[in-house]
Design a protein that fits this description.
Length: 384
């Protein structure tokens, strides 16, 4: 028997059909949401990117002069290129309990559930308001939400706390790691491969830097107390892409390593970067050649977050989920920026499993969306 699609599922199908890849326009999707909200007499504000091709959306439902609850999510999705999808990633496929499509878990499922609840939010006699905050370019370093936060600085009163709907299986997370990512640019001196002493091989420099990254990881593991609430109980160091060299018979004069550090709230990313730069300086020193150089360049970063367990956000949200089994996340969200830059703490709680995110045939289950729908019902009741 095929169950009739719920309102949330029908909305999710529509949201998935907008191919809102990071760095590409999401305006069609934002227009769709804004029109939908307007049909419920909810007026949305768009906060555009500098080039106007993307936008965040913010709306308040209920009494705006009281601190309320902000429901936050990102509208962008990661690429599908090179992935082995069994069907069109932007056409939702229903198969038993599974709803498959890009963004189903990360995190259009949550947005669909929020939108499906808007008519009830609008009808309810809310004593405290609900803020909707949907951002762009989260997946490439929480870019869009920073402009939204700038705008929210002028909104008074600010929300009392936020709920970020990243996939946690509807469990409550009170902390997550932050991230610093960038490139290590190793430079050398080009020459003919038959005369290695005439040049400086940048790939060799990069090889030593890879060793330095692994050493840094070992140092972190040996000098910090593991926190088993994370899947990876320490701050992690990772190299993801390496590029260098033009031909076998040429001494490469440049080699680049894309790297990241995902730090726990208690670990200072600047200190870890300083340690990496010290290692780079040591390697260059050992080469003792004017053309040998290593630069550690940061491209993006966002802070970790941690909300105290006695904070209202934790009590309120665990009260709705009925689940006191709190967790900490290895991946990041906009929660760190809301906490650091806006002074609004919160929790992460949303439908689906992060293990399905970013992969081919990403899916969310109907059971998880149903759980999120019930969460929204309880949220409305608790604020009424
Ligand atoms: Zn996400």
């Amino acid at each position: 028997m095929i169950l009739e699609p719920t309102k949330t599922e029908t909305l999710l199908e529509k949201l998935i059909a907008f191919p809102t890849l990071s760095r590409e326009s999401n305006l069609d999707l934002i227009d769709f949401i804004a029109d939908y909200l307007l049909s419920q007499n909810v007026v949305a504000t768009r906060v555009f990117s500098e080039d106007g091709k993307q936008a965040n959306l913010h709306a308040i439902i209920g009494p705006a002069d009281i601190p309320g609850v902000m429901l936050s999510g990102h509208t962008d999705v990661v690429p599908v290129a090179g992935q082995d999808w069994t069907s069109d990633p932007f056409a939702m496929r229903v198969e038993g309990d599974k709803l498959t499509g890009r963004g189903s878990a990360d995190m259009k499922g949550f947005i669909a559930s929020v939108l499906a609840a808007v008519p009830d939010m609008a009808k309810a006699d809310l004593k405290r308001p609900i803020h909707l905050a949907f951002s762009y370019d989260e997946e490439v370093g929480c870019i869009g939400v920073r402009r939204l936060i700038d705008m929210l600085q002028d909104v008074t009163p600010k929300p009392a706390f936020c709920i970020i709907g990243e996939p946690t299986g509807m469990r409550v997370a009170t902390a997550h790691k932050g991230k610093v990512s960038g490139e290590i640019i190793c430079s050398g001196k080009a020459g003919h491969s038959s005369l290695p002493a005439e040049g400086v091989n940048a790939i060799y420099l990069a090889g030593e830097m890879l060793g330095a990254l692994r050493e840094l990881q070992t140092e972190i593991i040996e000098t910090t107390i593991p926190d088993e609430d994370y899947l990876t109980p320490y701050s992690s160091v990772h190299a993801g892409v390496i590029k260098g060299g033009v031909a076998l018979n040429v001494i490469p004069d440049e080699c680049r390593i894309a790297f990241e550090i995902r730090q726990r709230p208690e670990d200072d990313p600047e200190k870890l970067l300083d340690r990496l730069r010290e290692k780079a300086a040591y390697i260059v020193d050992q080469w003792d050649h004017p053309d040998a150089g290593i630069e550690v360049k940061i491209a993006t970063n966002y802070p970790a977050f941690s909300t105290p367990l006695d904070h209202e956000a934790v009590r309120f949200v665990t009260g709705l989920t009925g689940d006191n089994d709190l967790r900490k996340l290895d991946f990041g969200t906009e929660a760190g920026l809301f906490q650091r830059d806006l002074g609004v703490s919160g929790v992460v709680c949303g439908p689906g499993d992060i293990a399905q995110a970013h992969k081919a045939d990403e899916f969310v289950t109907r059971e998880q969306l149903g759980k999120c729908d019930r969460f929204m019902e309880k949220l409305i009741a608790a604020l009424s």
